[in-house]
Every structure is written in structure tokens, then in C-alpha cells.
Amino acid sequence: MADRHDDLVAALRDLGDRLDLGDPAVTPGAADPVAAALRRITAAAPATAAAHTTTGAAPPLAARPPRRPGPARRLVTVAAALVLVVSAAALALPGPRGALARALGIGGVRVETTAEVPAGVAAAYDLGRPVTLDRALDLAPGPLAPAAAGEPAGAFAGRPAGTVTLVWPATEHLPEIEGDGTDGTGLVVTAMRGSPERPSVIKRAGPETTVEAVTVGGRPGYWISGALHEMQLLDPAGDPVARGVRLAGNTLVWADGGTTYRLESGLDRSSAIELAETIR
Amino acid sequence: MGTPLDDRELVARAKDGDVDAYAALLRTHGHVARRLAAVVCGAGDADEAAQDAFVKAWYALGRFREGSAFRPWLLRIVANEARNRRRAAGRRADYELRFAADRSAGDGVTVATPEAALLAATTRDTLRVALAGLPPRQRDVVTCRYLAGLSEQETAQVLGLARGTVKSRAARGLARLRADLDDRAVGPDRRGEGDDG
Predict the structure, then answer these.
(1) pTM for the complete prediction?
(2) Preceding omega of A60 cis (within 30 degrees of 0)
């Protein structure tokens, strides 16, 4: 019990109070991360953004990259939203093949990634807790890692139980997922347990986002591409398969043997499908 | 400290691109965020981790769920960034914390006598070594809770753990620290009570 350790806790709190955070007033030359971050943010924005910080002028909407709209603009988006409920029984259209085999070296050299987990990915994609790759493969409802993508850089387990995600950084052959707020994420593959034979997708997006019925290894799925969008998978009862409507890049969704897969990447449709088909 | 209501208003403005509003949020929560970075990845990378996390949080504001608390959301991004850096440093870097009191008089902490000061410094030093020896999972919880000063609930949110896991890891971590300190015969003398881990 913690109360038996009151003195130890007090000693730890005292230690915390003495942490040297590099206060420039105490440590000459120390950088203030708050000031440095704000400089980076305003430097990345147009001149109007910098002006805003000193003059209180109108908020610089252009100060950030594409992202999910803020509250005011989201209302507009929702008002104009195209809400689709697409059945997997819809026509399945096989995509063209070939590009990925060259890009990722299927049958030849395997892409090896040794990079670290892209910074910010767990928060940006709300992936749950980090776990070891072995643990992730134990928890996953089915095979999860596309062989052609090589070793993932990180693994995460989330709720509901059985939702497992692997993450790869962007590489020469895995273009970065743009505008997701992370530092160089190239591929995010999620497997969700208990999902339907035929997943349904609700997509809320403007007309610049498209949903196409596709097949992945002979299984029904969807290719969702275009502008950043919100997405929610539903089970046959119409209940959400995974929590939260969330931002997604180019996304391939398909079901296989009671597991729903979601593959997000910066790849085009045919490359994403070919990559997905190396999950086994 | 800003009230939750202040935070909500500032977040709403920041989401619309108001850098001043975001600066105000960082001024409120930046200190605890820096503490958190320092205890998670050690002193060497803490400022860079915090700085990168602050920038990423700005760009991720569009995904901040309205009505939720800003502080744990920000701290989670900071903790993730700090853990990524710790992972990247791998085995080539030891976990190291730096304390202002090592180089100068402590931050407003008064010590009665030189002997007491020496004893306190020795205890701190031993505690620091013992902390570095904790398994990282226990150390994350212990340092988030007691050095960074997060609540149990915040620690759970920031580390992505169940609250019960935070409680059990904190208990095991404290017990292990106690045993380590007892072995070194320095520090709070509660020998024999620390084996419930």
C-alpha cells in the first residue's frame, strides 16, 4: 500500500521539485522548449501568422497543414456531409496490380526498416498502449503484418480488446501519410476482432473523398481516398466496430475470417491492395 | 493554473489557428509537461522531446475531442515523444536525471544545518540511483506520479494504462525502491516492509 511509503513518496516529490528543467534564468544557454516550439509554429506559418502573435490580428487559419476541421468549420462540413452506408455486397472491383511488387520488392529484396516508431503516431491515431511485436501478434485476432513491408517499428494494443495496430515509418517505398500530425508515418495496419463478414463503412466527407468497393485477396473491402475524412466501421447490427470516428489517410478496409483490417498509407489503391495481400 | 473553462476557451481559439491562445495553454501546462519529459526520457533529451511534442500537439489540435481535458491530452503527446526518444537512445544512454540542487542551493528548500544538507543530498543521490535501477514500466509510473506530480488518473491517461495498472505498478515500484534503499542502508528507514511487490 502506498500509505506505508509516505516518507518515500515525500522524498520522491522533493526530488521532483529539484528537477533541473534547464530554466534559462538558472542555467545560462538553456533553451525554453515552449518558446522554441512557438517559434517553430509561427515560422512554419505565413507571415500573417507571425503578425497575429504580436498584433492580435485575425487568427491565421493558414497557420497549419490540412487537418480535421475545427468546430465551426466542422458544422459546415457536417451540414454538407455526404453520409454513405455502403454494403460489402456491392460490386467488388479488383484493382490493377504490379506497382507494389516493384516498389516493395516482393519476391526479391525485402524492405528492411530499422527506424524508430514515428513520433506522435500513438496519439495521432489513438492507437492505445505500446506493446512488443510478439505481444501484438499474440493479441491480434489474425495475421497482421504485411510480409512485403518488413519489420514494423512499433506495435500497439487498444480497445476494444483484440484491436492491434502495427506502425511503419515512411521510407523510400512507403510514402509518408500527409497531414496526419505525425513525424513520418508510412503505414498503419490495424486488425479488429469480432468484426462482421461484411463490414459496412460510414464515411462522412465532402465530395472530394471517394469510396470504392474493392477485393483484397478475394475478400470484400473498400478503398477510401482523397481528402482527409472521418470514418466509422459498423457491424451488422449497426454498432461501431471500433471506438471513435477518426482521421484517416488513404485507407483500405476489408474483412477476412471474422477480422476486419484497416490499412492506412500514402500508397495508391493498387499498391495498398497488393501490400494488404501479403498479410498471411 | 488555468481553470478547465479557460482551457476550453483557449483550445477553441487555438483550434482556429490562434497561436497566442496556444501559447497561453503552454504557459499553463508547459512546466508539468517539461517535468514529465524529463522523468520519462531523462534530462538529456527532455527539452527537445517537449519542444517537438508542443509542435506536434499544435498540428494535432484538430483531433482534440471537445469537452475533454487539455492537460492529459497534451501530456500524453509529451510522454509518447519522450518515450520514443528513450527508445531511440536505447542502450547507449543511461537514464539520467539532473537536479538543480546538485549544483546550487535547492529551489526554495531550506535545510537546517550543513550536516542535514549532506544527509539529504546523499539520500537524494541514492534515491536517484535506485530510480534508475527500476524496471522502466514501474519507473514510468513512479516518476509520473511522484516526480512529475500527475494524479493517478492522469498517469493512466498519459501512459495509456488502466488505472488499476497504475496503482499496482506504483505499489511494486515503491516497494522495490524501498528494498533497494534498505539494502543501501540510506534513506527512510522502513526496512522489511517493502516486499509486497
Answers:
(1) 0.48
(2) no
